[in-house]
C-alpha cells in the first residue's frame, strides 16, 4: 500500500544501490567469462554472441545491436569488461569490410532505468574496437567523433551502435 507523499527515494540508500549494481555487473562479467572458455587475443568466440549481436547495413550506416546494456565503468574490473566488449564488437564487425577516413559513431544505450549518467558508461571499448577492427586508422580526433544517447526501454534493454562516414558538417552547432 502506497502512502500519499512518500517516495521510494525516502527509503532508498543510494550507496547500497550503487554497491549492488557493481556486484551484479561483476557477477555478469564472471558468468560471461565462464561461458566463453579461455579466449586468446585475436581468437574469435561465438558462444552466445550470435544470439546477442546483430549487425546490419542501412543506407551506408553500419548498425550493431547488442542485447546487453553498456555498463558503468566505475567500480568494475577493467580487464574482463574490456575483454567482454572488445569480443562483442569483434564478433559484430567480423564480416564488415569497410574502411572510413573519418567516422561518426553514435552509441545509443536503452536502459530499463529512467536515470543514469551518460558519461559513466564504458564506451571506450566500443571506440577502441573501431580501430582494432581496422574500420579507422586511429581513434584520434582526425579519424573519429562520437556521441552517446540515453533512452529508456524496460522491455528490451540494449545498446545500439551506429557507424557512418563523418559528415563534412554536422549542422548541430550554430556557427
Please give a structural write-up.
It is a single chain. The chain is of the alpha+beta class and 175 residues long. It has one domain: Holliday junction resolvase RusA (60s Ribosomal Protein L30, Chain: A, 2-Layer Sandwich). Helices cover 29% and strands 22% of the residues. The chain contains 4 helices and 5 strands, in the order H-H-E-E-H-E-H-E-E. Strands 1-2-5-3-4 form a 5-stranded mixed sheet. Residues 38-45 have low confidence and may be disordered.
Topology readout:
Layout: H1 14-35, H2 49-52, E1 53-58, E2 61-66, H3 78-93, E3 103-111, H4 124-132, E4 144-152, E5 158-165
Parallel strand pairs: 3-4
Antiparallel strand pairs: 1-2, 2-5, 3-5
Helix pairs in contact: 3-4
Keywords:
175 residues, alpha+beta, 22% strand, 5-stranded mixed β-sheet, 60s Ribosomal Protein L30, Chain: A, globular
In short:
This protein has 175 residues and is α+β, with helices and mostly antiparallel strands. It contains 4 helices and 5 strands, in the order ααββαβαββ. It has a 5-stranded mixed sheet.
Amino acid at each position: 500500500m502506497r502512502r500519499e507523499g512518500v517516495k521510494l527515494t525516502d527509503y532508498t540508500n543510494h550507496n547500497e544501490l550503487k554497491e549492488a549494481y557493481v556486484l551484479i555487473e561483476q557477477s555478469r562479467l564472471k558468468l560471461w567469462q565462464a561461458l566463453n572458455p579461455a579466449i586468446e587475443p585475436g581468437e574469435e568466440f561465438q558462444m552466445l554472441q550470435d544470439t546477442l549481436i546483430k549487425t546490419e547495413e542501412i543506407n551506408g550506416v553500419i548498425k550493431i545491436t547488442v542485447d546487453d546494456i553498456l555498463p558503468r565503468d566505475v567500480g568494475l574490473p577493467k580487464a574482463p569488461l574490456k575483454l567482454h566488449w572488445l569480443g562483442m564488437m569483434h564478433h559484430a564487425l567480423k564480416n564488415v569490410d569497410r574502411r572510413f577516413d573519418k567516422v561518426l559513431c553514435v552509441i545509443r544505450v536503452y536502459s530499463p532505468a529512467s536515470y543514469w549518467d551518460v558519461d559513466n558508461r564504458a564506451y571506450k571499448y566500443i571506440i577502441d574496437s573501431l580501430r582494432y577492427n581496422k574500420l579507422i586508422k586511429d581513434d584520434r580526433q582526425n579519424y573519429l567523433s562520437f556521441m552517446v544517447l540515453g533512452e529508456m526501454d524496460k522491455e528490451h534493454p540494449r545498446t545500439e551502435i551506429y557507424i557512418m562516414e563523418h559528415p563534412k558538417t554536422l549542422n548541430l552547432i550554430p556557427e
